[in-house]
Amino acid sequence: MPNWCENTLKLVGSKSDIEKFHEENTIVLEKHGVKKAVLSFEKSVPANGKIDVEEVRKRNPDMKCLPDWYLEQREAWGCKWDVGADDCTISNDFSRYSFATPWSPPYAWLRTIGMLYPTLKFTLDYDEPAMDYIGTMSVEGMSFEDTFV
Hints:
With 149 residues, this protein is of the alpha+beta class. It is built from 5 helices and 8 strands.
């Protein structure tokens, strides 16, 4: 069972660019008859089959016994799993997503998203209380900054 890292992702940009991001990065899930749009790392940054797991194992020999799917997703997104139905809420009025990820924030996904949407500014506030760290990542195009305590 993982420690959960709480994340809040804020977007700044034109209304049309933000709407495009919403459309291209959310999926609709249904729970108890209620449909809800949730953020999906896999939708915009596919992991499975896209990562050279042998190269990852060469760089990290202690990961040689881990399954391919784990290495692919960790390398592509910076965390083990995609966002799930209970892990994400969307407030379109504020262009903000709140979600949880296992053990760490999705730093690799955020860097990739910054390059895919260079007209948007992304700010990710994260907090992992069990490991006692908190921080903010800012991404705009190729510019990436991570401040943590």
